[in-house]
Design goal:
By secondary structure, the chain is α/β, with parallel strands linked by helices. The protein is built from 11 helices and 14 strands. The protein binds S-adenosyl-L-homocysteine. The site of S-adenosyl-L-homocysteine has 18 residues, from β10 and β12.
Length: about 350
C-alpha cells in the first residue's frame, strides 16, 4: 500500500542522502532526486536519473504524495483554487493568490477539521486525518510549478484543518519549506492561522521561528465565541490572549486577529468597542473578514455598511484594522467549499479512508 511508502518530500536533504545511501546508491543521486522533487516532478519525468535507480526508489518511496485533481481559475482576479488528491484518495484544497507583492499559497493542514466552527465548511464532516509534512511540502511544490514563471513567496496555513492540532507535522513542514534546498520561504513569509490552542501557541513561541500568528477570534466575548466556536468552551478568550501576549513577547512579531463579521451575531458596534478594550496595548492587527456564505450553515455576511462602521469604530479606538479583500468568490473561495462541493458529486473516494 502506498501509505507504507516513504514520502520523499517529507525528508530533509540530509535525510534523503542517508536514505539513498542505505539503498547502496551514491549520495549524489540523492541531490539529483531532491532537485526534481522540489520542482514538483514525478519519477517518470526525472530524466537524468538511471531507470534502475528510479525503479529501486519507487518500490519503497513516493515522489509526489499529492496530485492536482481540479484547478479552477477565477475570471475576476486570477486566483486559482486547487483540489489535491492525496496518495490514499483523500482530497484537500489549496489556493494560489496573486498580489502585487508576490504569490501566496493558502495550504491545508488536515483532511477536514475537528474544530466544528459554525461558519466553516472544512469541518462539516469532521477530521479524517492529519496531513504529513511531506504532503504539505509536496503540495507547495506542485503549486509552485503551476504558478511559474513566478514563484510562491508566501504561505498561509489557512486552508482546511487546524494547524496546531497537527503540531509536529506542521512545524516539521515549516522547517522544511524554509530550507534553501527547497522553496526557501522563510518563516516571516508564513502565516499560521489557529482557532486558538493556548498551550500550542506557547510551544510555537518557543520554537524560535518567526511565523506570523493569525488568531481566529471572531468574537469579543466568551458568550458569543462559544456560540460559533466549540473550542471556546475549552479555552477562554483571556487564556487565548495571554498565550498571544507570550507569543508577541517571545518572537517580537505582532499577532493578527481574524474576525469574520456575521450578520446579527458579532457585528454590533458595542462588539467592536468590547473587542477594542480587550486588545488595547497589544501589538496586533485586526483583519475583518466579510463572511463567505456557506449554504450548509445558516449564517450570513454582515452588510457592507456594517463592516465599514465596525472598521471605523475599531480604527477610532486606535486598533490597527483592515478589511480582507475577497478573492476567488466565483470559484468556491472559502475554506472547505470546493471539497464540500466535490463530496456531493459521484467521485467519493475521499470518504472511504479512515482517520488513523
Ligand atoms: N483552523 C484554522 C485555520 C483554517 S480557517 C483557524 O481556525 O484559523 C482560516 C480562516 O478562515 C479562519 O480565520 C477561519 O475562521 C476563516 N473562515 C472559515 N470559514 C469562513 C467563512 N465561511 N467565511 C470567512 N472566513 C472563514
Amino acid at each position: 500500500m502506498s501509505e507504507q511508502k516513504i514520502q520523499l518530500t517529507g525528508l530533509t536533504p540530509d535525510a534523503a542522502t542517508v536514505w539513498v545511501k542505505s539503498l547502496g546508491e551514491p549520495g549524489f543521486r540523492a541531490k539529483q532526486l531532491y532537485g526534481w522533487l522540489v520542482k514538483g516532478v514525478g519519477f517518470d519525468e526525472m530524466k537524468n536519473l538511471p531507470g534502475a535507480f528510479l525503479t529501486k526508489v519507487a518500490e519503497q518511496a513516493l515522489a509526489q504524495p499529492a496530485a492536482i485533481l481540479e484547478r479552477h481559475v477565477s475570471k475576476q482576479d486570477g486566483t486559482e483554487k486547487l483540489l489535491f488528491v492525496l496518495h490514499d484518495g483523500h482530497t484537500v484544497e489549496g489556493v494560489i493568490m496573486r498580489y502585487h507583492h508576490g504569490i501566496t499559497l493558502c495550504l491545508s493542514t488536515q483532511v477536514g477539521c475537528a474544530m466544528g466552527c459554525a461558519f466553516c465548511a472544512s469541518t462539516l464532516q469532521g477530521k479524517l486525518r492529519d496531513l504529513t509534512a511531506g504532503e504539505m511540502a509536496g503540495m507547495c511544490y506542485l503549486a509552485n510549478r503551476l504558478a511559474g514563471p513566478d514563484r510562491i513567496s508566501n504561505i498561509v496555513l489557512m486552508g482546511s484543518g487546524e494547524p496546531l492540532d497537527n503540531y509536529d507535522q506542521v512545524t516539521a513542514f515549516l522547517r522544511l519549506i524554509s530550507s534553501p534546498d527547497t522553496l526557501n520561504i522563510g518563516a516571516r513569509h508564513i502565516s499560521l492561522s489557529t482557532c486558538g490552542l493556548p498551550q500550542k501557541i506557547r510551544a510555537l513561541a518557543e520554537e524560535g521561528m518567526q511565523v506570523t500568528l493569525s488568531l481566529s477570534l471572531h468574537a469579543p466575548n466568551d458568550e458569543i465565541r462559544k456560540q460559533i466556536m466549540p473550542i471556546a468552551r475549552a479555552h477562554s478568550i483571556d487564556d487565548v490572549l495571554q498565550a498571544c501576549r507570550y507569543y508577541i513577547e517571545k518572537t517580537g512579531r505582532r499577532v493578527v486577529f481574524e474576525y469574520a463579521l456575521i450578520d446579527g451575531i458579532n457585528d454590533k458596534l458595542e462588539h467592536a468597542r468590547e473587542l477594542a478594550s480587550r486588545l488595547r496595548r497589544m501589538q496586533c492587527h485586526v483583519n475583518l473578514i466579510p463572511l463567505n456564505d456557506v449554504k450548509e450553515r445558516n449564517l450570513r455576511a454582515s452588510p457592507r455598511a456594517q463592516v465599514e462602521r465596525f472598521l471605523e469604530t475599531l480604527t477610532q479606538l486606535n486598533i490597527s484594522t483592515t478589511v480582507r479583500r475577497q478573492l476567488g468568490n466565483d470559484i468556491f473561495g472559502a475554506c472547505g467549499q470546493l471539497r464540500a462541493q466535490r463530496l456531493k458529486t459521484p467521485y467519493q473516494d475521499d470518504k472511504q479512508g479512515d482517520a488513523p
